[in-house]
């Protein structure tokens, strides 16, 4: 029975007519040159073609008939070298797939400059068949637009996953290093299929234990398993590790003994894992130690670690997600205040990792003002794939649309039209790094991600990290076909549901620019009324500021002036109550309940319309899903049906609780036409 384990790599048999078309083009696999990566590519082709075409092509050493798939690099394969293909622009990870003639025989070549390019090419070739696209007369090449495409696992060593809703951590530390769970390989295959080339194994809040020698022996096995798939392993580095592991009195990044400790520990890591990727660090944020404890800057801290990994080719991803307790400055402003003055002060092998918005992975936030504001610092995006604030595993919320919205945002810096995606893709100097991180939604659940539809967010993240200019709609369409099977009814229903799903969540949780109204701690369900937490910026009332006069956070000049951190053109738009997109109105403005909206309704009435619309959209998804009852397998179908029912209950809960609370503040009547609370 289907349970979702195969993700988008299901490789079920294609229709007979399509088999007849594809089989003659995939009669044999010819590969020259041997490596674990080439083996992985060949195996994947055999697995995929075997499944889809009903027979796995034989592997051969030479081209002896029509229909061979030739796979190789010019360095490893004389056949490929003789074809003199234009590979020079494809870099280390790109690939080319082309229909060619070899000794009079029709063949398809998958070529690259390196073995990993071949694996990516193999997955792309298979994807074309999954999507029923032609593979004859083919001529395509592709390469990633970003260098570091990395998952951040918020996994603790006891296998608890922070903000994880899909079971335990995949990393079975207790059985490592002896036992290599075969699932690690399937995980690597899935990642390679979408171009992910790094994984941070440990939580940003983890303790320092992972850096102990006995743990590194376990990490080594994971690194070995992932290596053929082009995936490097990274670890989080707790800034106070020299104290906790080294018995030192300080972790001051300018203290020579501290620096020496990190160097020695890093050398040790590289002795065990020669291609170790480097460190991810959360410092001076939410109670984590950091250079600020010693009155040093984030650059001082990052550069110390960068020095340690530099001789080995490693990198440091230093997070900009910082805000302090008892800092009266709007939390929205604090990261920018701390980091922008450090522009140009980070070592070459440091990337500053910035969340998409300035608060925290809300259903909708404007783009983070740091993007565009640090032109001399490589910035990488941090998206959250796991749905901490979007209904955990059960609510259907496709995040591709949210990420596209952020990536397309015009930073206005240094000029109009320069988007967040441009900032990510443009090297700040020749050879500088680029990247994107996604907080993983992967665990031990059979379906990996907690729900069938959450797999789409893992998939979409990989595609957007490979190419930040990708379109959410196209990604959803590809994923739908690969995951649910071909057919126009499925395509339309599933992709249609996905494309509107995130806006539905925005509507029933945090419409019109509201944010951070979730219950405390676990962040599940509504709690806009909470006001008694010790740290003011953790209270929902801090964010909506509703009173009888109105609602919203004034971030203009009359308020916190966070808008001034954006480029003047962007600030002018966000800062004007008339020009700000309505979707962000209450993010930037405190307006009276009677404020006139574009619809002609008052803000109060509009708010209620949005809540109702969100619930209605979930009902519409349920109705659409019902039409697929006989078109998808019963196991997965029933899971989605039940999860949508949960989502409908909880969307209703969000709406009713939010309206009841805001009504207790606004003291306004419910508009006509609003459904009575369930
Ligand atoms: C959020 C999340 C935390 C996480 C933090 C971070 O605040 O709730 O669990 O540690 O983000 O990104 O560091």
Automatic annotation (TrEMBL):
Residues 7-125 form the Alpha glucuronidase N-terminal domain. It catalyses: Hydrolysis of (1->2)-alpha-D-(4-O-methyl)glucuronosyl links in the main chain of hardwood xylans. Residues 129-448 form the Glycosyl hydrolase family 67 catalytic domain. It is an enzyme of class 3 (hydrolase). Residues 450-673 form the Glycosyl hydrolase family 67 C-terminal domain. Its EC number is 3.2.1.131. Signal peptide: none annotated. It holds the Pfam family Glyco_hydro_67N. It comes from the Bacteria. One of its GO terms (molecular function) is hydrolase activity. InterPro entries: A-glucoronidase_C_sf (IPR037054), GH (IPR017853), Glyco_hydro_67_aGlcAse (IPR011395), Glyco_hydro_67_aGlcAse_N (IPR005154), Glyco_hydro_67_C (IPR011099), Glyco_hydro_67_cat (IPR011100), Hex-like_dom2 (IPR029018). The keyword Transport does not apply. Keywords: Carbohydrate metabolism, Glycosidase, Hydrolase, Polysaccharide degradation, Xylan degradation. Belongs to the glycosyl hydrolase 67 family. Homodimer. This is Xylan alpha-1,2-glucuronidase. It comes from Sphingomonas rustica.
């Amino acid at each position: 029975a289907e349970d979702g384990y195969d993700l988008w790599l299901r490789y079920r048999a294609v229709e007979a007519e399509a088999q007849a078309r594809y089989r003659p083009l995939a009669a044999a696999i010819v590969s020259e040159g041997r490596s674990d990566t080439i083996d992985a590519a060949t195996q994947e082709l055999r697995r995929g073609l075997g499944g889809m075409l009903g027979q796995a092509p034989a592997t051969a050493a030479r081209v002896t008939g029509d229909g061979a798939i030739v796979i190789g690099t010019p360095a490893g394969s004389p056949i490929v070298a003789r074809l003199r293909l234009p590979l020079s622009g494809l870099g280390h990870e790109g690939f080319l797939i082309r229909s060619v003639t070899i000794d009079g025989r029709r063949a398809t070549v998958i070529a690259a400059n390196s073995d990993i390019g071949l694996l990516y090419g193999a997955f792309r070739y298979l994807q074309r068949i999954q999507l029923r696209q032609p593979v004859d007369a083919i001529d395509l090449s592709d390469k990633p637009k970003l260098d570091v495409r990395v998952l951040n696992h918020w996994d603790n060593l006891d296998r608890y996953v922070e903000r994880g809703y899909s079971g335990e951590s995949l990393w079975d530390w207790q059985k490592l290093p002896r036992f290599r769970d075969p699932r690690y390989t399937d995980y690597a295959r899935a990642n390679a299929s979408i171009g992910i080339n790094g994984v941070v194994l440990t939580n940003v809040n983890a303790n320092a234990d992972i850096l102990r020698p006995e743990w590194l022996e376990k990490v080594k096995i994971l690194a070995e398993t992932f290596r053929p798939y082009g995936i490097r392993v990274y670890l989080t580095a707790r800034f106070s590790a020299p104290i906790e592991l080294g018995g030192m009195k300080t972790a001051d990044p300018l203290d020579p003994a501290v620096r020496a400790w990190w160097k020695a520990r890093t050398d040790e890591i590289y002795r065990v894992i020669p291609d170790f990727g480097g460190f991810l660090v959360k410092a001076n944020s939410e109670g984590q130690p950091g250079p600020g404890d010693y009155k040093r800057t984030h650059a001082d801290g990052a550069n110390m670690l960068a020095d340690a990994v530099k001789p080995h080719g490693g990198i440091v991803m230093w997070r900009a997600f910082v805000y302090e307790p008892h800092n009266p400055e709007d939390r929205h402003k604090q990261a920018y205040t701390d980091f922008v003055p450090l522009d140009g002060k980070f070592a070459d092998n440091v990337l500053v990792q910035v969340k998409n918005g300035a608060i925290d992975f809300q259903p909708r936030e404007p783009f983070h003002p740091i993007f565009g504001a640090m032109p001399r610092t490589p910035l990488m995006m941090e998206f959250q794939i796991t749905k901490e604030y979007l209904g955990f595993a059960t609510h259907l919320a496709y995040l591709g649309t949210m990420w596209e919205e952020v990536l397309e945002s015009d930073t206005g810096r240094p000029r109009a039209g320069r988007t967040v995606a441009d900032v990510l893709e443009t090297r700040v100097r020749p050879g500088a790094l680029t990247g994107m991180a996604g907080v993983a939604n992967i665990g031990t659940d059979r379906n990996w991600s907690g729900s069938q539809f959450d797999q789409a967010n893992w998939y979409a993240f990989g595609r957007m990290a490979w190419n930040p200019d990708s379109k959410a709609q196209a990604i959803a369409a590809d994923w739908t076909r690969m995951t649910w099977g071909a057919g126009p009814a499925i395509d339309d229903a599933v992709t249609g549901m996905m494309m509107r799903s995130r806006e539905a969540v925005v509507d029933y949780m945090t419409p019109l620019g509201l944010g951070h109204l979730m219950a405390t701690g676990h962040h599940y369900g509504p709690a806009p009324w909470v006001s008694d937490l010790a740290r003011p910026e953790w209270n929902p009332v801090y964010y909506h500021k509703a009173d009888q006069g109105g609602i919203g956070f004034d971030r203009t000049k009359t308020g916190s002036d966070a808008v001034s951190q954006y480029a003047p053109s962007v600030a002018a738009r966000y800062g004007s109550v008339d020009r700000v997109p309505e979707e962000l109105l209450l993010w930037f403005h405190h307006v009276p309940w009677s404020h006139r909206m574009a619809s002609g309704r008052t803000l109060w009435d509009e708010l209620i319309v949005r809540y109702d619309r969100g619930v209605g959209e979930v009902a519409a998804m349920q109705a659409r899903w019902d039409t697929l009852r006989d078109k998808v397998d019963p196991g997965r179908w029933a899971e989605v049906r039940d999860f949508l029912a949960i989502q409908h209950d909880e969307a209703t809960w969000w709406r009713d609780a939010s309206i009841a609370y805001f009504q207790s503040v606004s003291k306004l009547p419910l508009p006509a036409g609003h459904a009575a609370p369930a």
